[in-house]
Amino acid sequence: MKVLFVNGTVIGKKTGVMLEIIRNYIEKTNCGYSLEIMNLKDYEHQIVDGRPLIEYNTDMQEIVQKFKEADGYVIASPIFQGSIPGVLKNVLDMLDPSTMRYKPVTIVATGGTYQHHLVMEYQLKPILDYFRCMVTPNYVYTQAGDFDHDNRISSNDVHDRFRELARVFVQYAEMSKVLREVPNTKK
User: Fold this and answer.
1) Can you spell out the DSSP letters for 139-167?
2) Which of 6, 37, 79, 83 has its CB surrounded by the most CB atoms within 10 Å?
3) Quick check: is 97 in a domain?
4) Which Pfam families does the record cross-reference, listed alphabetically (predicted)?
5) Contact 6, 42 (CB under 8 A)
6) 22-69 pLDDT, tens per residue?
7) 150 lies in which domain range?
8) Half-sphere exposure of 44 (CA within 13 A, CB side)
9) Residue 93, helix vs strand vs coil
10) How many domains does the chain have?
């Protein structure tokens, strides 16, 4: 199983720190999955405007291909102005609705205040529901006080939530294997 860790921003370090920690916790489950981190800052982005995929640059095509090849996703997003970054929404707009169908997804986010945790619930989860993903029920939201001055997670509670998030994600990934099998309807 291939899991794509999506760092859904082009600036900052906190989302990348969270993805590394979660990757380590998933590895500790001994699931044997292939784990890849994709940093959106490493790509040249174009605004999605409805053109066929072939008309976008190779970076945009590569992003779509990575999503297609993945069997599950961990999406990390900062919360800016009460919303996910435009670059993350733009990437999601590139995807065919069937790309993420019945694949497990877990969400982590960080923001300046505790009130922004609802962005995950009321903005990102509905998008993922549109894709018919298997969104884990236990996303993790962090805020600035959970990080030290070197952008390391200093909260044991956050680490505990990341461990549980990894455990639940692996269970959802195992369940998804059966759901993505296409039943043979021919007799």
Assistant:
1) -EEEEGGGB-TTS-B--HHHHHHHHHHHH
2) 6
3) yes
4) FMN_red (PF03358)
5) no
6) 999 999 999 999 999 999 999 999 999 999 999 999 999 999 999 999
7) 2-179
8) 4
9) helix
10) 1
